[in-house]
Amino acid sequence: MNLFRKNCLSCLILIFTFFITISNGATPIAPAGRSYSCSVINDNKLYVFGGDPFGIIGTPQTIYLDISLIGTPNPWYLLSDIPISVSAANTVFNGNNTVFLIFFNTVYAYNISNNQWYPTGSNGIVPQTRTQATAVIDKSGKIWYFGGTNGTTRIYFNDINSFDTSTYTWSFGSTLNAPTSRFSMVSIMLPNGEILYIGGVDGSTRSHINMAQAIDSLIHCHN
Ligand SMILES: *[C@@H]1O[C@H](CO)[C@@H](O)[C@H](O)[C@H]1NC(C)=O
Ligand SMILES: *[C@@H]1O[C@H](CO)[C@@H](O)[C@H](O)[C@H]1NC(C)=O
Ligand SMILES: *[C@@H]1O[C@H](CO)[C@@H](O)[C@H](O)[C@H]1NC(C)=O
Q1: What is the position in ligand 3's atom list of the atom closest to the CA of 130?
Q2: What InterPro entries does the annotation carry (predicted)?
């Protein structure tokens, strides 16, 4: 092999390595402990978004852990940063490579396949800005965003708002038979279209809620 060919080969190997690094796109890290982050699971990977690392409010970090390897030496990996630092945001996974993250009243989308964030629009009736709300996504790709608080102005919400992920349009749901205002609860979308809200802090009494309440997303689907 002459010198020229040798150099070409090294060059190709370099380019190849470069592409592998880019396509994997993830750097191993030892993340700081944190609260107020949010997460989704897909394909044996736990993705964690934002949160408050100890002593700091908000981070733009996206990290993941391969949960099939738990129990073996297994690093967290750093992925692309969220476009902004978030704390107490919400994430939902559409089952098809896209994670939607809602922070205050803005929705960001993350493509798991190419590790890229992209903005969504905000058409329709955009909900009032809030934190510590909760979100679920239904089979049709609608996100249901409920409750939360605006800490600054001490407003506590019990309105349900939906965001259509195919048109990026917000709609106001309804407060008909809605649970009382609350924040910091969790929610689960049941197969029959009901959304179950569990726990949280009551907006008027500030007491911790120890029961679950359901809302029917099919009834609350006003446009
Ligand atoms: C998943 O997303 C891809 C690319 O955005 C799209 O072409 C495909 O139709 C989607 N599949 C389903 C089942 O929604
Ligand atoms: C996500 O990335 C994959 C791979 O680049 C691409 O094929 C797909 O269309 C992207 N999906 C969306 C919704 O942009
Ligand atoms: C509370 O409302 C004010 C005024 O609308 C807004 O500037 C602020 O960002 C809100 N805070 C949260 C946490 O939503």
Answers
A1: 14
A2: Kelch-typ_b-propeller
The residue nearest atom 11 of ligand 3, judged by CA position, is 150
| Choice from 19, 111, 167 to test ligand 2 binding pocket (greatest atom count within 8 A of CB) | 111
Over the Cα atoms of the chain, what is R_g? 21
Both tokens of residue 204? 């008027």
Q: Taking CA 200 as the corner, what is the angle to CA 196 and CA 206, rounded to the nearest 5 degrees? A: 140
Amino acid, single-letter form, for residue 14: L
Q: Which residue's entry shows tokens 């506590």?
A: 156
Mapping DSSP to helix (H, G, I), strand (E, B) and coil, where does residue 6 land? helix
Cα distance between residue 84 and residue 108, in whole Å: 10
Q: For residue 11, what is the enclosing H or E element? A: helix 3-24
Q: How high is the pLDDT of residue 212? A: 81
Q: Domain spans of the chain?
A: 28-120, 122-223
Which segments of the chain have a pLDDT < 50? 1, 3-4, 6, 8-23, 221-223
| C-alpha dihedral, 39 to 142 to 192 to 103, nearest 10° | 30
Q: Whose CA is nearest to atom 5 of ligand 2?
A: 114
Q: Taking the model in full, what pTM does it have? A: 0.85
HSE-CB at 212 with a 13 A cutoff on CA atoms is 11
Q: Which among 105, 129, 145 is the best mutation to test ligand 3's pocket, defined by most ligand atoms within 8 Å of the CB?
A: 129
State the maximum Cα–Cα separation within the chain, in Å, rounded to a whole number: 81
